[in-house]
């Protein structure tokens, strides 16, 4: 029943039904996942155009121009964005042109206004040759019909902009997962209420809700349930229609760890315990057809398991690890992977120090989780894999 982090992720993905598709307007697309490839409906730029404000001319007429011996050209008109020059530029001629305006026929180079010695109404003097490099070619960004965005891409702000530039008004996206969220434990109290000794504010539910929102999920807040199988059954029964139930607390070895009992005695279990720390006691299973992942109650543990197992399964995006140099040693555990909190300074990663699963501020202060594989301690100067928080 003790699975690796990778197995846990795969088993959770396998329990989730494929989300299906829907269409959303561009404005509602941020954070969603593209469900089908997107082709360009137009080319961008839609015509060969100028990258600068200046004059458009034939490069050959300006070769050898210097401040002492400027090139002199006759101005025959102008080309503006949306209002192209209707005729052709001949030898010794130029048009005024503005950024994004189509290149007139006959012209192949641009000289920016800053390089004009004289900018008269009928003639201009160029202190240097005009440059073909300041011309943006038609389709230089993308061409009509080209497949530009792949299915499965998370829609970041630049990608929403790109989809709009491709000409799409609405986008096919994966349906959001509907995730019910429940925290458990007699000692768990809503923030804002009086806290008696031994009680703790419910940080997990709010942290997990925020993480679910980051994953683009629709969150069904089930609130908090006390430690009894009956209370849990009653709360879980309210998660109707959810794709997944995420709980925190009650999954370890204690007498009052009823989430564990609910799944083991009344539901079914896919795994109980992952070879990782923090977060080892996590449990995955089902209750009356509803997939359930029970995260440990310890505040750091619940959020770390979410980050490395639940998030990749819900978003379909693999865990993005990068390689950094270790500035301090990181200890290994014999039989499980460790995800130690690290601070990144000067391109290197340092041990945060306090690695207890109850030290929630460590997770807030840290920049990354440093992955230390089972039995492979990290020495100063070693390359390590880190996952940004
Ligand atoms: N004998 C053993 N004891 C424990 C083991 C073990 O293997 N043998 N595993 C430890 C590990 S590792 C973890 S992680 C915890 C997980 O325990 P539970 O999931 O059963 O969590 P609880 O006992 O319910 O709570 C643990 C801790 O977290 C606090 N908590 C719970 N819910 C919240 C919440 N919503 N917001 C903030 N804090 C919360 C709770 O008060 C406890 O302090 O078990 C170890 N024990
Ligand atoms: O996983 Mo527990 O998370 O080590 O405290």
UniProtKB/TrEMBL annotation:
Catalytic reactions on record: adenylyl-molybdopterin + molybdate = Mo-molybdopterin + AMP + H(+)
The signal peptide, as residue positions, is none
GO MF terms, alphabetically ordered:
metal ion binding; molybdopterin molybdotransferase activity
CDD domains (UniProt xref):
MoeA
Protein EC: 2.10.1.1
The biological processes this protein is annotated with in GO are: Mo-molybdopterin cofactor biosynthetic process
Top-level taxonomic group: Bacteria
Give the first-level EC class, as a single word.
Answer: transferase
Q: Name one GO cellular component term.
A: cytosol
Q: Which SMART domains match?
A: MoCF_biosynth (SM00852)
Please report a single Pfam family linked to this protein: MoeA_N
Q: List residues traversing the bilayer.
A: none
Q: Which cofactor does it need?
A: Mg(2+)
MoaB/Mog domain ranges (all copies): 180-316
Q: Sorted alphabetically, which keywords does the UniProt record give?
A: Magnesium, Metal-binding, Molybdenum, Molybdenum cofactor biosynthesis, Transferase
| UniProt pathway annotation | Cofactor biosynthesis; molybdopterin biosynthesis
| Keyword Nuclease recorded | no
Q: Which family does this protein fall into?
A: Belongs to the MoeA family.
Question: What PANTHER family does this protein's entry cite?
Answer: GEPHYRIN, MOLYBDOPTERIN BIOSYNTHESIS PROTEIN
- What is the documented function of this protein? Catalyzes the insertion of molybdate into adenylated molybdopterin with the concomitant release of AMP.
Its protein name is Molybdopterin molybdenumtransferase
Tell me which species this is from: Deinococcus koreensis
* Source species taxonomy: Bacteria, Thermotogati, Deinococcota, Deinococci, Deinococcales
